[in-house]
């Protein structure tokens, strides 16, 4: 594994530049980019079937966007309009149909057989971060419906005055980030943390632990060269890590897709004694 001290991380001059504390990417475009990236990363990948399945779920989310509108306000740890979320889950299952990969089929059948109250309890548990209370096999689909609704609600909700607070969790919904993104374009070189629930992204300066804020003992770990698109930013102070996905290095990269396709890096970093400080919606904690 390639390991570099934080001195290797360039520090762009952010002091004189205007920046937006919170970004909310257009959902249709985001889902389209994510699905395309998942399909591209699936080529030759050990877990190609699962990456393509995640692409299909993402495409179903995109298709259902018009139905996800007009839901209630978003609050940290609370589901906006729980009943609507379950209706969206039904529609998601309809869209995914029955032509699904063999390993997924029994879980999908189990989810279809669940009573509405049980689905609601599962989605509620996920919304509150109680991942062990929702069956792991069906959690990503429950999450996909929940996320579709929360992401839509977040775009209709007033943006909190988070200023430059650089929080460790999403200012909109309180969820831990899936990964950091180094952006290009008008936010060139800036780091934003991406929320796997409401799909908002919030600014945090680079070369600082996204979990505890310390800059004292950071390493950037990857399997490839120092120029790898995906690296794990590990912190010797809190022993946490989260991946950094660089759009400067690959303009097609996307937080959820690139993180999901590099779970082998998680195993290696966990093997070094670090604990992941966020999660992927398609690989939820058990
Ligand atoms: Zn959020
Ligand atoms: Zn830390």
The shape, in one word, is: globular
Radius of gyration: 18 Å
Q: Fraction of residues in helices?
A: 25-40%
So, the CATH homologous superfamily of the largest domain? Answer: FdhE-like domain
Class by SSE composition? alpha+beta
Strand content: 5-15%
What is the CATH-assigned architecture of the largest domain?
Alpha-Beta Complex
Number of helices: 8
How many β-strand runs? 9
- Tell me, rounded to a whole number, the average pLDDT: 88
Number of spatially distinct domains: 2
Bound molecules: zinc ion
The arrangement of helices and strands along the chain is EEHHHHHHEEEEEEHHE
Largest sheet: 9 strands, mixed
Stated plainly, the CATH topology of the largest domain is called FdhE-like fold
Cα end-to-end separation: 26 Å
CATH class of the largest domain, please?
Alpha Beta
What are the low-pLDDT stretches, counting only 5+ consecutive residues below 50? 5-16
């Amino acid at each position: 594994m390639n390991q570099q001290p934080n001195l290797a991380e360039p520090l762009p001059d952010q002091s004189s530049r205007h920046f937006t504390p919170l970004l909310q990417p257009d959902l249709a475009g985001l889902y389209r980019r994510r699905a395309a990236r998942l399909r591209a990363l699936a080529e030759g990948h050990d877990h190609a079937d699962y990456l393509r399945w995640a692409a299909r779920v993402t495409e179903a989310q995109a298709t259902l966007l018009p139905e996800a509108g007009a839901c209630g306000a978003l609050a940290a740890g609370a589901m906006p309009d729980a009943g609507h979320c379950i209706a969206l889950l039904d529609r998601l299952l309809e869209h995914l149909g029955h032509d699904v990969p063999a390993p997924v089929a029994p879980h999908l059948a189990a989810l279809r057989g669940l009573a509405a109250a049980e689905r609601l309890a599962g989605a509620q548990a996920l919304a509150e971060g109680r991942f062990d209370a929702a069956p792991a096999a069906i959690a990503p689909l429950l999450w996909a419906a929940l996320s579709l609704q929360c992401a839509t609600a977040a775009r209709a909700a007033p943006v909190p005055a988070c200023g430059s607070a650089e929080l460790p969790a999403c200012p909109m919904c309180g969820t831990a980030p899936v990964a950091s993104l180094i952006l290009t374009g008008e936010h060139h070189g800036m780091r934003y943390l991406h929320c796997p629930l409401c799909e908002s992204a919030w600014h945090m300066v680079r070369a600082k632990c996204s979990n505890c804020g310390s800059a004292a003992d950071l390493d950037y770990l990857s399997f490839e060269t120092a120029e790898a698109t995906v690296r794990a930013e590990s912190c010797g102070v809190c022993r946490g890590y989260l991946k950094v996905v660089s759009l400067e290095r690959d303009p097609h990269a996307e937080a959820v897709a690139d993180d999901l396709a590099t779970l082998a890096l998680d195993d290696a970093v966990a093997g070094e004694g670090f604990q992941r400080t966020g999660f992927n919606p398609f690989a939820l904690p058990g």
